[in-house]
Amino acid sequence: MARIQDRIGPNRVGPWGLLQPLADGVKMVLKEDIIPVGADKLVHFLTPVLSVSPVLMLFLFLPFGKGMVASDLNVGVLFFLALSSVHTPLAIAAGWGARSKFSVLGGMRAAAQLLSYEIPMVVVVIAVVMVSGSMNMGAIVDAQETAGWYGLTPWGACAFVIFIIAATAESNRTPFDMSEAESELVAGFHTEYSGFKFALFQMGEFLSAFATGGMAVALFFGGGLPLPFLGGLLPSWIWFFLKTLFIFIVLIWFRGTLPRFRIDHLLAIAWKFLFPLSLLVIIAAAGWQYLAVDGHNLVGAWAFDGVLLLAGYWALTTILFNEFERINRPRNMAHAR
After folding, report:
1. Dihedral sign, CA of 234, 239, 241, 245?
2. CB 168 within 8 A of CB 276
3. What is the pTM of this model?
4. HEC states along the chain?
5. Most buried of the four, 99, 102, 177, 291, by CB within 10 Å?
6. Phi-psi label, residue 99: left if phi above 0, alpha if psi -120 to 50, beta otherwise
């Protein structure tokens, strides 16, 4: 991130500053735990713990390699989506329990943001489940071994982009970190949390980003399946880790590059662009499954998906930009002059 932002990064702790995360962890653990006078002490204590626990459980359902799933449930996709949405009520509880206006506002923003972006993310996952015919994570990866990676198809590429954008918002990562907007809300819903409690919130955020990256790899890029021209060169779990690490680096790239959205723009993108586009992805996935099954009529499948998604993207982008122009237009033109 320091290189992305053209600045000097950590370079004192360990060789090339590689031990800085360890030093930061020790510093946070040793810091004093300060509880505001009017805070609800029980809620103030439980929310950091509960915020990281569901994130750790997400890794139970990820297929790290061939047969390497801790909990191989038939509805693993459903459990993953359910656990990833637990952060919404916890953000509200964290803000409310701290008894701070800034924290409450951050919690309310988090609820609006997470609920809005949860819907397009679930819809594109439904497209993957529909094509693969299973909600089992391992079965979805196995289906891509014969049919090819879904992320290399027109509908799958569009679904992957929507999933990554929604997952970034779900993880409160920049440019969707409206619930932690330090320029407006100090630190958002975790303003009044210090020391190890603050560390738990941050650990949950980063682990959630890594878990959603692993989910994206399993759904769209074959999980632990190797690249076609490098089959058998590396174990499946290394392939899975390398793909997930690449997506995580892209998320860090977002954080170091893009500015924060405005809250009304943020919600408009979810409801007026991503959600309708995700519905088109389902139609495109159905058309692809009908036309390209067993490799038949691939040209027709590419043409159908390409025309549908490009036309939908153009129409929705036009609507969204017109909406942004309407939102930003001064209501009092005399005042604008």
Report:
1. positive
2. no
3. 0.84
4. CCCCCCCCCCCCCCHHHCCHHHHHHHHHHHCCCCCCCCCCHHHHHHHHHHHHHHHHHHCCCCCCCCCCCCCCCCCHHHHHHHHHCCHHHHHHHHHHHHCCHHHHHHHHHHHHHHHHHHHHHHHHHHHHHHHHCCCCHHHHHHHHHHHCCHHHCHHHHHHHHHHHHHHHHHCCCCCCCHHHCHHHHCCHHHCCCCHHHHHHHHHHHHHHHHHHHHHHHHHHCCCCCCCHHHCCCCCHHHHHHHHHHHHHHHHHHHHHHCCCCCHHHHHHHHHHHHHHHHHHHHHHHHHHHHHCHHHCCHHHHHHHHHHHHHHHHHHHHHHHHHHHHHHHCCCCHHHHC
5. 177
6. left
In a domain, 70, yes or no: yes
Residue 111: inside a domain, yes or no?
A: yes
For 79, 134, 323, 331, the CA distances from 128, given in Å and listed in that order, are 15, 9, 30, 44
Instruction: Answer yes or no: is 102 within a domain.
Output: yes
* Angstrom distance (rounded) from CA 75 to CA 105: 35
d(CA 250, CA 39) in angstroms, rounded, equals: 38
CA 217 to chain CA centroid, nearest Å: 12
Residue type, 269: I
> Considering just the CA atoms, what is the radius of gyration of the chain in Å?
22
Judge whether residue 335 has pLDDT over 60.
no
Domain holding 166, by residue range, is 20-262
298 occurs within a structural domain = no
Domain count, the chain: 1
* pLDDT tens-digit series, residues 153-210: 889 899 999 998 888 887 777 777 766 665 565 666 777 777 777 788 778 888 888 8
